[in-house]
Design brief:
Layout (H helix, E strand, L loop, with lengths): L1 H27 L3 E22 L2 E10 L4 E11 L4 E17 L4 E3 L2 E3 L4 E21 L3 E22 L2 E22 L5 E11 L8 E15 L4 E17 L3 E19 L1
Antiparallel strand pairs: 1-2, 1-3, 1-13, 3-4, 4-7, 5-6, 7-8, 8-9, 9-10, 10-11, 11-12, 12-13
Length: 270
Amino acid sequence: MMELKRLGLALALTSVFFAGAAQAQQQQNDRFTLRLGVMDADASSELTANTQFMGQDYRYSQDFDFGSDEVSPRIDGTFRFSDRQRLVFDYFQYDKEKTATLDRDLSYDQYTIPAGSFARAEVEFTLASLMYDYAVVDTDTFELGLQIGAEWAKLNGKLLAEAGPYRYADSDQEDGYAPVVGARFTFTPSEKWLINVQGQYLDADWGDFGDYDGSISRANAAVEYRFTPVVGAFVGYDWFKLDARRGGRDGSLGLDHRFKGPVAGVSFSF
């Protein structure tokens, strides 16, 4: 009798496991998923410059930030067209402005910068990508995918300064595209939960970024909960690193710009 009870319990646990695995597999097999969210982006930068004067090498480095975090839009999605193959796309935009104003006169030798003089800087960074993803490992509850595709990036900077009757304004913009490689790990422990981790890397030398060299790296992780088979919500964390360098006849100028912060949003699956 005891053996029959043990056998019944084992069969019940086995059926629960396979039912959960089947439901998780159903979630993995969604044809199309769209995630709409925001990122509470914390940005920090390091500006570097290298030049040579009278046979001597000179280097400048300065850390700076843009103050408080900026809530930035973030969109990503997946289109699955076979058991192991999918297209992955995403979009992110960061736009931040910072103004510094003198609250008193500042004098140097015979020159005086009056109170109320200010400098305003604005940076806009946009990143969009489309990647082909192939699941080299595909089980009922987890997948390991390798990615290759193209990424488009745009960096736009503006500077405005006023001191008394004097005014200075300048701006610069650069955009381009390049191949990107990446990897993805997806774990679906049940029909309602999904955990996704991925990372991508782009080298500016691979693509069309004008006179700029450098790289773009990205890593993110998200946990998603399905309220229904169609609607869900997710939270996670995203990290970007933009390392751009531009050379000239007299030296080079570099910008190491990083974005990081929590993400949250809603998902729709069909």
